[in-house]
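Lay summary

Proteins are chains of building blocks that fold into shapes. Our project writes down both the chain and a compact code for its shape. Here are two examples, one after the other.
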Amino acid sequence: MKQIFKGFLFLLLCTTLCHTTRADEKVNVTKQGTIRGRVIDATKQTLPGASIYIEKLHTGVTSDVNGFYTFSNLDPGTYTVKVSYVGYSPVELKITIPAGRTLEKDVVLNEGLELQEVVVGGAFQGQRRAINSQKNNLGVTNVVSADQVGKFPDSNIGDALKRISGINVQYDQGEARFGQVRGTSADLSSVTINGNRIPSAEGDTRNVQLDLIPADMIQTIEVNKVITPDMDADAIGGSINLVTKNSPYKRFISATAGTGYNWISDKAQLNLGFTYGDRFFNDKLGVMLSASYQNSPSGSDDVEFVWDRDVETGELAITDYQVRQYYVTRERQSYSAALDYVLNENHKLTFKGIFNNRNDWENRYRLTVKGINLEEDENGNEYCSINNKGTMRIQTKGGTPDNRNARLERQRTMDFTLGGEHLFGKLNMDWSLNYAKASEERPNERYIDYQLKKQKFDMDLSDERKPLLTPQAGSVMYLNDDFSLKEVTEQQEDIQEKDFKAKFDFLLPLKKGAFGNTLRFGFKEVHKTKDKEIDFYEYSPKDEDAFDKASLAAAVDQNRDGFIPGEQYKVGSFVSKEYLGHLDLNNASLFEKEQVAEELATNFKAKETVTSGYVRFDQKLGSDWDLMLGLRLENTHVKYSGSQYDEDEDKTTRTPYESDSYLNVLPSVLAKWNVNDDFKLRASFTNTISRPKYSALAPNVTIKRSDNSISVGNPSLKPTISYNFDLNGEYYFKSIGLVSAGVFYKKINDFIVDQTLRNYNYNGTSYTKFSQPRNSGNANLLGVELAYQRDFGFIAPALKCIGFYGTYTYSYSRVEDFNFEGRENESGLRLPGSPEHTANASLFFDKAGVNIRLSYNYASAFIDEMGSEKFYDRYYDAVNYMDVNASYTFGKKLKTTFYAEATNLLNQPLRYYQGEKDRTMQSENYGVKVNAGVKVTF
């Protein structure tokens, strides 16, 4: 299959080069020329999305994300070139094209007269860059510039994304982690850096952790909701492209210092940032270097419940009850570099690299009452029978003194790209070689767990949002001499994903004028490897009595005043993190060490090669219509090996490598109608895919004896396929702002969900819980997107300093052909991970250097996991977030900004519920966070 790809692309390249050679023969007669340059403003900041138009030729181009533009294959002579940009006065230039040469011409735009009262660098400038970039795109795109991000209290990329229409984010420890685009789960969208998909640092997902990347390291966020054939096709919801900082037009220096506070951790935060850019050697070499450091102590107050029903009476009951206290410190370090070297006016070399490191130190103190109201039948199957008895478990999570006696999760991502931009006569060629790596390490992750069986409790279920368990007389909730050691464990984890990519793109202008056209084509090859290795040991003290005595003497009360879920929940006392961290577990005179084989059955190795090629034909139909026809081919070859646990022999063995290959043929059609300069209509059909997770494909069999459950991989999974239709209209106001409305439809086939069955017989053995990923059916997704942003100057000039930004997305999804055992005939099921409503609103004031912004985000509840029946379905609850931030900027040569912000003012928890909205499964609370600091730009 690879040979077919390469032969096809080689033939296309040869044909193009022959065409170019024949054209060059004519060029030798006419000696056609080229004009290239960069569009900037008066402060020497680049302007992406500027329109550059030659009236005589009825031909125009748009400056790219870094402000560059190119006109090639022009007959010698003098032309009038018009350059326009929202919020700036248009410029007309007389340019003489030299024969057979390339002319370099930068264009400087000045503030529009109607905007002179606005301070440059305020919210308006950020909106200008975003609006211009998406205005001239062929597909449906939302753009957020660095200036815009700086006006919101967003510490990482995930927080910035939640401001974009059609995007919802899911949280972890109070920070946005995964992004959901257009009512689809995070698995169905991609995250790229400079157009290359980022590998994931986690073992069980392809999703990229957005909280790894600080917001101040990114120049632009592009959300492409319509995928063109020159983009990777694995983006059913959309593609989130993070554009790192590019080399500057002139010297640029910026520094940031700030601090913050969180009431759960009761500790201060630290935020530092620095950026330096300049050009050297007569502007041939451009360099941009950036660094960011964040240290954020925080935490969360958490309660969790598992619900069931009495098998005889149907009475509601709880089988698992947990109260958790988390203390977390997250340290982020991020470094980026961008270089470009201009060989001559037709050839340039580029390099971009970014490295992100996040250290996550976590201590968790967990009180569990396990197995409440559960009995076993003669076959060992568990069933619910209300008896109000359960086992108390008291667990401390920590690490070694080298890791602050906490569990350290170190996640790293790096992405390095070497590329070139070349012009050979009429033919433009861009190439890039990319290496990316993501890793997660958890060294010496330790747990100590004490238990007390057959405890009696009273259960108050009158308020299902806040169920409460209290001990009956003679039962205890605090660690004491009645408890016995359940286990002491230590785990080592190492997950790595590596990507090697080679990409070549070609652009050939075929015809100029009102009916001009261009041909683009290219190919890409990506080699991926992903390895997950866990080593797990259980330790038994040789003198258990002495060990228990020392452990219980080290108990510490972890109850915290102001526990957010409610003072009625008591987390209790626990073995201290210092005691756990200092245990000499590898001392053979103190402990016996045993490897736990079933814990190793999640290990896997995967290799994936994706070879792709595309052809894209762009045709202008007069001055008002643009049409694009495209075809992309992607061939995927996967090879993977898993692990299987044999409970009879109590050992885990590696499975042989299995492999699979498949080819996706992906057509696309896009059209854009420029009704006038301010009103744009877009329509498109695209075909996209989503590949299964590596961990889902791996032929693993994992048995957890602690709860008699089994999970099984599924090598026969097929990729999810989507057929997408979009219609979108945008009107751009003469002042800065826009209103847009769009409708989209996705026909999604073979979506993947983990099927969970209860009391399931697998290979002759009965398990309480069985789980396996599978292609679960097809779904229809219909959505509507609305957006509005504008200042109030159209009401009265005095109100120009006040503005509003708002978005709303409605998505309707229905599942067809659902094939879960026992649920085949259900109707009205929504697609997992699909909120019905999402909305964002922001009211801002910006005048004389003062900027104040109040922001609100909403997303409705959605089904997150599907159980064996509706009663066991898990839902991610609706969220309401409100943030406020203010800043004051002064100075010109030394621009200084003081800022202050407060997030999560509504104290929104991460909440899951089971089956019914008021039936809490989990409520994790983070409290309000505040930050303040100063930023200086030279």
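And here is the second example, written the same way.
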Amino acid sequence: MSAAGAKRGVARSRRSFALSALTFWSLGYVLVGVGLATAAVWPVYESPRALAVGLVGGLLGMAVAVLTRLLRWGMLIGALAAVGTYLVVSVPLAIPSALSSVPAFIGGLRDAVLGVVLGWKQMLTLNPPLGEYQAVLIPFLVVMLFGAFVATLLVLENGRRATIAVPVVTAMSVFGIAFGVSGTTSPVSILGVALPAPREWLIGVALFVASLVWLVGRARLQRAQALRTVAAANISRRATPVWLTVRRHLLSAALAVVALVAGFAIAPAAAGWSDRSVLRDEVEPMIVVQQQASPLSAYRSWFAGGTLDETVLRVQGDPGAVDRIRLVTLDSYDGEDFHIDPDDRFSRLPRTALPAAGRVSLDITIGDAYRGIWVPSPAGLAEAPAFSGTRADALADGFHVNEGGDTAITIAETSTGDEGLIPGDRYTVLADAPGDQGDITALQGGASNLDTDRYPTLVEWAEMQEQPRTGAGYLEIIDRLRARGYLSHALLDDEAAAGWIASLKESEGYAFAPSYAGHSAARVEELFTDMVEQERRAGADAAPELLVSAVGDDEQFSVAAALLAEHWGLESRVVIGTRLAAAEEVPGIPACTETCTGANMSAWVEVRASGADWMPVDTTPQYAMLPSSITEGEQLPEHPTVPEQPRSEALDPPQAQSDSNNDAPPLEEPQSELLAILLPILRAVGLSVLGLVLLALPFLVLVLAKRYRARARRTAADPEVRLTGAWEELVDVYADHDVEMDTQGTRTQRALSTDREASDRLAALVDRAVFAEHPPTKDDASAAWEIVDAERAELAHDGRWWHRLVKRVRPTSFIGRVRSAGGLRSFGLRPVLGTLGMTGSLGDRKASGGQT
């Protein structure tokens, strides 16, 4: 055998698999790494299923790697085997919920394929523990199966490449840290020293010690194996001094001790360097939420036109103690709009919850008056809603809640290209029954949290009331705010406002008073300006009906109440929703029992002391007493009556912005039930086929490239080039079919190294034609290619069908030619000609410096 052949034989033997102490030692190291990685990821999932995914996935990856070495597969075949194993076990192991039916299994397989790319982002939009929700275990399975596969292949190497397994095993454990929670385990005290994050410290030290022990043990086992080989060959060796052996043992022990002491000493200091940051901390709030206009700005649209009597939602079931259905909770005010804080996080909610007593189940159906991403629901959802109908899967996939569970959204796409709920959507919610809401009067306020320079009139009016900065004082000031306000949802008494005006007139009598929309700081200050001036004119001891002066509705008064709470040193936020029968009655905005229309939509404020529970406070102003107009210096009657406000013609100011969807296009005709069943199945099948096509695309490119290369060689214009192309094609065929051939020497020498008759005949034919006195003919070229085709066909019949398939798509011939052409150092003539076949005459190639 030639030197090159011997070198290949040695390289092949290094990649063979043999049972030995070193093999078991290396596999044990990978197994320890799998266990540590599973332990590191526990806080992310906190589910027994995660333990099964970690351990089983790691063992499967190790098994595929061992099988690859045992059967002497190439890296490509081994990787394909790992991918196949992943596709087989991904659904039953990581997505067991997809085993309920055939369509669910196809959808689960789609999630397993797409989860390799998209699953990581899904993990970061969930608040841990993730449990078994949908396909969140897919990224962990990918890390464990393929990480263990690569690490096992590396540790079974005999050369220096085996040490690369250390960062691979470490990366498997880093997954649990990077995708974990921001907080760490509670500190513990050891020998009087506080050790922060003991669990994380223990995993890190265990990884270091395991890697160090494996490297030292591997070196010792390799040395012992080499000594046995020397002894078997009867080669004498000089004995190792005892002191050198002792020194090696002491050095290894010292390294382990230093690592433990250093980790124990550095951990407390490192914990104080900076706050712990993980990947989920860097995820921006959902873009779709930030793109929404403030729902409070569109509050008056519920009372405009026909929306007042249209159904917003229908609630079925016994609500029990649930007294409110909230649409959205707004916790940030910028002086112009109340909206959702940009730092709020929206994440998914598990679809199943552990049993608990006192929960309430309600069926909610969206009516014609509502479209949008906000999902009406009670507070305290125990699990994600169970959606029904043709859009159930899309609505469930798009469902998210904020961190406190106070606002729910769905970003499912509609038929019109919008997002969210549409009329006809149905779902069932399971919510914890509200407990004792607490006593607001027991709250203790504090220093103002408000920018008093921005709200001078608000502060002035609050000080005029002379109330203590307690919960009781706050409730009293809100009662005065509502009593001195007057309910109005519009600026003009026109057809758009006729509905709610007639409704209020029917109940207790109502006289219209105009009011502007909006809840900016200027609009709220206008309310307090009216009340301050009225109180100055009428006097603090005036009758209540003489102090009515601020006109508006829940949009303005809820914001005013929230700002007053901040001035009282309390936390506040605004909630838009509807009250149910269990809530306290509020004149002007009736509660709904089963059908909730625009007339039932309200806005209220929730307040709390720092860290306490939120408590609702209604803010709707009264409408029994009209605003009074008092001239400064006017002598008030001893027994005043409520003056009628003179009517005047109002100019048309710019109308307030509204997000009403009255002009939305009509819904599309509902699809047939057959299409409703078939479309999700066809979509899942299509996505699965698309995923398989994407996986097969690289192999299809290789097949086409090989065909193009062979065609370029076979159809060259010069017969001599076709002859040399036939030889190059045979060399590539041998490379793809694992036929050993020397890379150096003449054609005849290289042909002899293969022990194949076809290569000998082709080498002789090509040499005779190239070096003969007369140029070769077309018949010579055809004869050469007949030899190549016959040899290719003979090799294609060897082995099983899947062996032949792998040989057709393997890139060995391309890689070998790139290496022989000098890798990436030559981008010009040589790689192109060496890969696809030369296309010029021999004289042209010699003139250009080419080689045969």
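What can we say about the second shape? Residues 1-15, 262-285, 641-670, 821-852 have pLDDT under 50 and may be disordered.
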